[in-house]
Amino acid sequence: MSLDGKVAIVTGSGRGLGLAYAQELARQGASVVINDVDAATAAEAVAGIEAAGGTAVAVVAPVGPTETAQLLVSTAVDTYGRLDILVTNAGVLRDTVLWKMSDDDFDTVIGVHLRGTFTCVREAATYMRANEIAGRIICIGSPTGQRGNFGQTNYAAAKAGIVGMVRTWALELKKAGITANVVVPVAATAMTATVPYFAAAVEADTAGEPMPAFYRHDLGFGTADDVSGLIAYLASDEAGDVTGQAIGVGGDRLQLWSHPEPVVTAYHDGGWGVQALQDEFPALIGEHQQSVGERFPALPDDLQRPRS
Ligand SMILES: NC(=O)c1ccc[n+]([C@@H]2O[C@H](COP(=O)([O-])OP(=O)(O)OC[C@H]3O[C@@H](n4cnc5c(N)ncnc54)[C@H](O)[C@@H]3O)[C@@H](O)[C@H]2O)c1
């Protein structure tokens, strides 16, 4: 597999998962447009890729507005002559329970993740279609978007929305040979470093030691580098028939997420009035109610850490 001659944009790639994706795409031969709001980390990312023999350029601008999407695509085309791969990774959190979430908390997260994904993909797909490039759109989801999570109304809305958009884009872009997929990562980064459940794994990673097998295997939680192989694979020619999928990866685990399907289908001649529902709903649907929330296996005693 090689990405030689291909050009990629990775949003939010100054640090964390985005940086790991950019480094891996560059290692596989792609020229990369680094993007971040933080100029220093963006410059460091470019320097690191160049020092490793790769090719990169930075665009310091906030993902969300259309102008940034236009600047990202024009930088790729003006600097490297084309655009083949877009990874929409930039993200922020504003976690709090529903009754404490402000309009600003909601709009900020929706603006970067959902609107930022929409504007960047619209710009990239428009360019790829016009230039007959069988491009690769890789958007970043989250277990929260798949199943919900306490304290993350805004983030759940954005990440679930991204999966919905990607399914739609897989349909709309199929004829042009452009694939669109969601990667659902779980990894030790600044975003997860403060979660007490992950503390022992982050501790090991920071010390340069391998993460405990419980995290890598049972939980599917590892380093940012554990996620980047899937990004590069989906970006390659080999993955040309993979589209419209939500694929989870973390630590030693790879998962294909199902798309929603009806689990119970029932008919009532003349339709479902209140009386028919009262009579039949409990037996038909009541016991089949679906679970919500991420599934966290119990943390073994030796991996328990006190809350800071
Ligand atoms: N870490 C995980 O386990 C995990 C799990 C599920 C999903 N994700 C998703 O992966 C992505 C990366 O997360 P991470 O853990 O590396 O986070 P991170 O906070 O370490 O990195 C996010 C990067 O995005 C940049 N950024 C923020 N707002 C931006 C904007 N408007 N425009 C451009 N750049 C911006 C930040 O400066 C930072 O460099 C996010 O979309 C996140 O929701 C992460």
UniProtKB/TrEMBL annotation:
Residues annotated as domain Ketoreductase: 6-194
Entry keyword annotation includes Oxidoreductase: yes
Species of origin: Microbacterium hatanonis
InterPro entries (UniProt xref): KR_dom, NAD(P)-bd_dom_sf, Peroxisomal_Beta-Oxidation, Sc_DH/Rdtase_CS, SDR_fam
Keyword Oxidoreductase in record: yes
Protein name: SDR family oxidoreductase
Keywords of the record: Oxidoreductase
Family: Belongs to the short-chain dehydrogenases/reductases (SDR) family.
GO molecular function, one term: oxidoreductase activity
SMART domains linked to this entry: PKS_KR
Residues forming coiled coils: none
Pfam families, per the entry: adh_short
